[in-house]
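2024-03-11 09:14:02 INFO receiving multi-entity request
2024-03-11 09:14:02 INFO entity count = two
2024-03-11 09:14:03 INFO echoing inputs for audit
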Amino acid sequence: MSTDSVIHDIGYQRYTGRRLGRGYATRSLYVHGVRSVFGLGRPPKAKIFPWAVVGVMVIVATVDIAIRSRTNVMPLSYRGYCEAMSVPALLFLAAVAPELLCRDLRHNVLPLYFSRPLRRTDYVWAKIAAAISGMWLLFAGPLLLIFVAGLFTVDTWRHRFDEARAFSGGLALAAIYAVVYSAFGLLFSSWLRRRMVASAVIVGYFLLSAAVGLIVGQLIGFPNGKGIGQMFGPATLVRGLADYLWSEPFTDINDLGPTYLAVAVGLVLVCVVLLHLRYRRARS
Amino acid sequence: MIETRDLTMRYGPRITALDALTVSVEPGVIGLVGANGAGKSTLIKILLGLLTPNAGQVRVLGLDPATDGETIRSKVGYMPESDALPPDVTAAEFVTHLGRMSGLPRPVARERASETLRHVGLYEERYRQIGGYSTGMKQRVKLAQALVHDPDVLLLDEPTNGLDPGGRDAMLTLIARIGTEFGISVVVCSHLLGEVERICDTLVAIDAGRLLRADRVEAMTTGQGVLAVEVDEGTEQLIARLTELGLKVGTEGRLLLVPIESDDTYDTIMGAVADLELPLHRLDQRRHHVAELFAAPAPAAPAAPAAPEEAASVDR
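2024-03-11 09:21:47 INFO inference complete, emitting structure
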């Protein structure tokens, strides 16, 4: 063998090592999805928007912390923060859901996935889980910031415990937002191949459904009109559901709480089922 | 390696994609030829377990795609006919990702992705985004993703689609190398018979979902060969000399076609050309084109003038 700087073609090597199965592939697809939600492993252009939203979320959290440290009142509680941030979260969703689904649809990548061990349902579940995780992390990060800062402002263990309880409530509400928003966002994205169109439709649906709800509420009138109308928009639906779950007094939902829960669960299930149907029929 | 018996696939009551197809092929480079709509892609999807046939049996690597689809799909690489690449990732990232989807641990996937890309002839370019690639490079990426997990069988659906003649040749040479040097069996779908007959050792021709013929290429092309001779000048002189030497010379444009009667024929021609001091342009043995065999299933097809490449498809 010569030792000159010659590149030797060592020929094709067969792979005899370990092959991991469907579960591994699904997990890898999930991790890949969560990363691409935040533009990681993607070109710089794909990072701008998600991180801009993250920036807004963090800034609001920082202001919340700053005011609390001065005045000892929390302008936004943990759950209040989630509700206040539902608009940036919607914008985030409008970027995230199409990113996860439309790229594969538009560029016909699905046949490459489905000719591999993982099944269509695995693909769908991995994408759903990635969207939910991404949305949840968007809330959870700033909430954690508020919590850590909050621990410095209280000094007794009882207060620290209360703080932790409120924090976990915030995380739970964030999870509800993540689940409901992702379900809608993914369903719309799965039917639209173009990313921009999907983003517009997602934002459009959220705004439009809220408007329709408002009108319906007016038509039905007192006492339950407002409560019923607010079930239409995903944002107000989640807020109403939170009011019910944490038994907030004096809200618009009156005794519609269980209905809110049923509607939310039902809508999410319908979205998930439709998503699976969509991919069962997708061309491979 | 692949076996089907009475395989039937219908889309709705009207369209029959496969009609009682029975075929069995051994490992090697297999050409699956047929006109567009003959049922090639349908057959491939059944082999992958992505479609369930209406009737009949299939075995791929001894497994049934309907029940062991997952195992088969981990041992098979598939290159679809359509564009299937997102433009905004690099080839290296994309192939690595799909390697993981095939069950390769992350470091292995990364290593094999760059190895495979090198084998298909993309090395320097693999860190560039796919969107900037030429059609030929994209086809290579599609081939690389089918190869990344080191499958036992490759299913390639029209791998030369959209390539210029040079690109076609390069792709076919690469496929032939995969079959011979890499030791991976390859099924190449094509509607151009003339293209795949060059690299395949088995040909399966289907038409309207039925089997036309399946055999090894040697079995189809045995029979008397013909030597094609072309000289830059003095064609007439050479014809005269060869006839004098007792050879039956036919012409086809500037080409002289001489049937090979014995082992000496080749030497006789070389001798004649040397004696006349003619500039020899080419001298090669011409095989019967397999196309003729499909077009006229009668055993001894006459040495008709070679069909031009386009007419060599079984598209009738």
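2024-03-11 09:21:48 INFO post-check: The interface with chain A takes residues 45, 48, 50, 70-71, 73-74, 76, 78, 80, 82-89, 93, 97-98, 100-106, 108, 112, 115, 119, 129, 145, 149-150, 178, 181-183 of chain B (CB under 8 Å).
2024-03-11 09:21:48 INFO post-check: The two ends of chain B are 30 Å apart (CA to CA).
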